[in-house]
From TrEMBL:
GO terms for molecular function: cholesterol oxidase activity; flavin adenine dinucleotide binding; steroid Delta-isomerase activity. Residues 93-289 form the Glucose-methanol-choline oxidoreductase N-terminal domain. It holds the Pfam family GMC_oxred_N. This is Cholesterol oxidase. Pathway: Steroid metabolism; cholesterol degradation. It comes from Streptomyces aurantiacus JA 4570.
Amino acid sequence: MPALVIGTGYGGSVAALRLAEAGVDVHMVEMGMAWDTPGSDGKIFANTTSPDVRSYWLRTRTKQPLSNFLGFPLDKDVPRHTGILDAEEFGGIIVYQGRGVGGGSLVNGGMAVTPRRENFAAVLPSVDAAEMYGTYYPRANAGLGVSTIDPAWFETAECYRYARVGRKHAQRSGFPFVFVPDVYDWDYMKREAAGTATKSALAGEILYGNNHGKKSLQQTYLARAKATGRVTISPLHKVTSVAPATGGGYTVTVEQINTSGDTTATKAMTADKVFFAAGSVGTSKLLVRLKATGALPRLNGEVGKGWGDNGNVMCGRANHMWDATGKLQSSIPTAGIDNWAAGGAFAEVAPLPTGIETYASFYLSITRNPHRAQFSWNAATGRVELNWQTAWKQPSIDAAKTIFDKINAKEGTIYRTDLFGTYKIWGDHLTYHPLGGAVLDKATDNYGRLYGHPGLYVIDGALIPGNTSVNPFVTITALAERNIEKIITTDL
Ligand SMILES: Cc1cc2nc3c(=O)[nH]c(=O)nc-3n(C[C@H](O)[C@H](O)[C@H](O)COP(=O)(O)OP(=O)(O)OC[C@H]3O[C@@H](n4cnc5c(N)ncnc54)[C@H](O)[C@@H]3O)c2cc1C
């Protein structure tokens, strides 16, 4: 076959669509499920407040990002299943990732943020920013279906009381407050609020999938890719090896798995070009192992390096009784506090959709964190390890404190200590935004061509060196649009 794409997230979906439009047949291999069939409750996706068999990737106990509430642990036993959210545990960090056709777009908040141009230039200096902001960011935003909440509706919607309280506190402390675009269908959300459409964001759906309203890749890039008739997808198929084939191209070894995660068949596929789009962690793990075990010996020494957590750190604040944040909270965040220039933190005002009044404000901050980790092969355990240290979150906590210490002082409020354990303020054990591991212009050339093995490409979040200053998927999509255009015109 001409082109094989490993993974069906943002990078993979862009590659598949543009290759197919150029007349190239594409096969996509995805380890997760298709997520196109309702369960026994008639719904495809489980609700955030009641995780079930569909919710976690091959775990026997849930691993909820907010592990505790009012002192009570929230996790519970679930049957082992190829569920939608992977809480992948490395030594110093848990990396949350979407599993299934659509990758992270199945589980994420849909916050679709284009970074400030000066910040982008600092992240990827080898990329022509004028081209990105003139052509590829607009193309990505259009392809993803990005739009911003109607500001008039925001002012009155009960489900955004929490965001208005977040704004009031930010502004009283002098911080810039910005609306954040999203891929959620805002007209649909208005109908949810009016009671004329089945509730999804207003029913708390997000972390384990949205049954309505959110435009995941299934509704955008992948739908268009399939409509070309040139793209096929194999769900529940996991790539385990890529090696040069005798006679040219690459042999890709693929394990078919069942919904318990057991291998039921092993297949060999051959492709002229192979696109690594397994996500920052998936792509890095494959490349590091294939280099170390001799399948792709000519990959360079940059493979596995430059990994970061996008500076993710979470916290909650306890408000006074007169600052109720609302029983009904839309699960789709719509606003943020931008203190990047002064304090190195961009904090999204996040929902806490528990169904009860919590008087809590909750935030996911993206911060400027200088630490970068490396993936390496451990031959003894047969695993790829990541050397991130939990203590490396301290610069992120310090950056977040530039916002929340000031707000707490101004409002006379305190941090919540019951959301991530007992008497624990900071959610510093996780990231939603893994980035890097096969960095552009280091492990690859300036368009994602892997050095050492012509015909192999990286086209996902692994290209980005650890931080984007905002939520990453628009940048991943725009960079993929840029790179695939070049690859199609010069390599095919
Ligand atoms: C809970 C959560 C909330 C988030 N919220 C936001 C947000 O609001 N805004 C934002 O910009 N970003 C958000 N993100 C991050 C965003 O989803 C990711 O940055 C993005 O999905 C990464 O895109 P990607 O193309 O690099 O890879 P992914 O989207 O991760 O896709 C990789 C795919 O490859 C598959 N795969 C991996 N290994 C293999 C293999 N060996 N064989 C076959 N298939 C494989 C995976 O199952 C997956 O489907 C969030 C993430 C999470 C987890």
